[in-house]
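User: I'll paste a sequence; please echo it back and then give the predicted structure.

Assistant: Echoing your sequence first, then the prediction.
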Amino acid sequence: MKRRDELLRSIELERNLKLSSPEILGVAAVLSFPEKREDVMRENAEIEEIGMKIAMDYELKQGRNPEDVRLKNLGFDIRSRGDGETRYIEVKTRAAEGKIALTPNEWMVAHRFGDNYWLYIITNALANPKLHIIQNPAAQLKAIEEVEVVRYLVERDEWKKVAKEVT
C-alpha cells in the first residue's frame, strides 16, 4: 500500500510538469589562458634592468646622453639628449616575445611628444636580447584599451563601527 501511494503521488506530480522554454538564470564567460606562456606579462626587476642597460648603451653608442628618469613618473624611462635632439624613451622588456602594455600616462605622453617619443622594446632579454625601436608609437601603433578596475569594498557593518555620525 505504501509503494502504491508513492507511485500515485509520483504520477500526480508528473501531471504538473509541462513543456516550456528554458529560463536563463545567468550567463558565464569562459576565458582560456593565453596560448603562449611568454604572452603573460608580469614585472621582473632583473629583466627590466637588462632592458634599461641595453637602451642606455644604445643611446650612448649613438652619441646621445641618456638619463634614467624612471622614478619621476614622467611617462617615459629615459630622457636622451644629443645633436639638438631630445628623445623621450619608454623601455619595455620581455623575457621572450609577445604583447607589451603601456600605462595611460605613457600613452598620453606618447601622443603629446609625437616624433620625439620613442618606444624601445627589448625581446628575449635573458637569452639573446634584441632591441626594436619605434618612433612616435602613438601614431604608428594600434593599441587596444584594456580597462581594469580595482575597487576596495568595505561592508556597511565595518565602516559603521568606526564612523562618527555628525548629522
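DSSP finds five helices and five strands in the chain. The beta strands are 65-68, 78-82, 85-93, 117-123, 130-135.
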